[in-house]
Amino acid sequence: MGNNMTQAFSGLPIVLIMIILTLSTGIGFASAAVSDEKIIFNGPFFENYGQGFSNWSGDMPPPSGTLLLKGTLSVLPDTVNAGESVEFTLNLDVSAMTITGKSGATIKASGERIWSLDTTKLLGEQVDFQAIPDPELLGVGIGSQVPDLILRSTKRIQSVSIPETGKPGVYPIRAFIKGTDLRTNSVNLTVLNGSASSEFNNSSVLEEPGKTLEITSPAITIPVKSDSENQTSDLQIGAINGKIINEREIHVTSIYPFTGGAGNTMGIKIYGDHFTSPVYVTLVKDNMVIDAYNYCFAENQKYGVVMIDIPVDAELGTWNLVITTKTGKATIPFEVTPKLIEPVILSVDAPVLTPDAAEDVSITGRELIEPCEVLLAGDNLKWFSFYPKPVVMHNAMKIRVKIDAPLSEEITSGKMDLCVWNTDGVASTYKKAISFSLE
Fold first, then answer.
1. pTM of the complete model
2. How far, rounded to the nearest angstrom, does the alpha carbon of residue 346 sit from its chain's CA centroid?
3. Residues 141, 107: contact at Cβ < 8 Å?
4. Calpha distance 62→46 (Å, rounded)
5. Alpha carbon distance 325, 279 (integer Å)
6. What superkingdom heads the lineage (predicted)?
């Protein structure tokens, strides 16, 4: 028996070697390229990294500490033909240490970050990864105390299709956050077999992409609680990973926030593509349907906002946010929670707004949790703070407003409501706060 087993296994190494040699001499495997690891941020934790982490409740002062954020970007495969697809992977590693002041302090609000691929020279546009909420990256949610030590890793994967007309060459590509100096080192992607009119030179490398146009990315919040061991709640995980169902030609990639309080007015941001006008948004559960209002979509129709009034007696739990256009429908899970703290607008100081003229608007209030957003709503005219963002200091806010009013008989002079959104999406409205004139 023993001899038989010895004989049976004695040939196995030879077989494995033959298999390896056979594979190694065949057509080459797809290889991945990985950027050098870069220290993306190294400095004070709570004062610098996340806007939301400066908001605390309790009698204790905000904690102080240090945070080290390192990251790499990889691409698989690293050599492709035009018309094929590649997969980029962003890996972020966080190590943070609390030094003083953590006892008794809990987070009141948090934010999120959207990392993008600098693919402008390759695709003519930048490509966004799925947003990374601070509670996921750092493992500290609203209502949670900061632990002594944080060690976490976060990953995002994004598939990119190379156009058939892609110009051959070697493209250095990096990941970055728009409007900041947070970025990874570059990874090289080689594109072969471009259009017939292009010449490929294996030795040519496209120059490092220049400084990206700084457009402040939306800052958003996903309310979440975490336990003493720094884990996000089931609600948070469900919100992040909740399945988005896109039907026909619409393509919704995400919404923020994923939750809203019963009795609150919520401002909701919608990201995606193919938002063919008109767009209709409803919050739906069983036979209950709540219509959105104050629709405002960016010119490229890839980013828009709406507002929804959630009734105080709305059933808590999972609802669906339904986005409908002429060419498709998208359904996204949305959690209704107990009522959240809402901002209070005390006063608004602004001149009469006119088309194409930039004016400063000042707002004072209470319970303003930055970063905030501002939406102006008049008859058939809406304006949202896509850019620039409001500046908030000690419950006072200032923002520069420039309304590009289209030439239309539907646009008339009149009063506009002013809506302030906190970072968690909770909103308040100051009726007829600002005058708008076509003259």
1. 0.49
2. 30
3. yes
4. 8
5. 5
6. Archaea
Where does the pLDDT of residue 174 fall: very low under 50, low under 70, confident under 90, or very high at 90 and above? very high
Q: How many CB atoms lie within 10 A of CB 153?
A: 10
| Beta carbons within 8 Å of 145's beta carbon, 6+ residues apart | 102, 103, 104, 105, 106, 228
Q: Report residue 361 CA to chain centroid gap.
A: 27
Q: How far lies 208's CA from each of 52, 120, 121, 329, 435, in Å?
A: 33, 11, 10, 40, 47
What pLDDT does residue 390 have?
A: 83
Burial (CB < 10 A; 0-12, 13-18, 19+), residue 216, is middle
CA distance 386 to 421: 13
Tally of residues, the chain:
439
Contact 267, 375 (CB under 8 A): yes
**What is the spatial distance between Cα 101 and Cα 368, in angstroms, rounded to a whole number?**
24
Cis peptide before 77 (omega within 30 of 0): yes
Q: How far apart are CA 439 and CA 434, in angstroms?
A: 15
| Domains parsed from the chain with CATH numbers | 33-226 (no CATH), 242-337 (2.60.40.10), 344-436 (2.60.40.10)
- Cβ of 239: how many Cβ atoms within 10 Å? 24
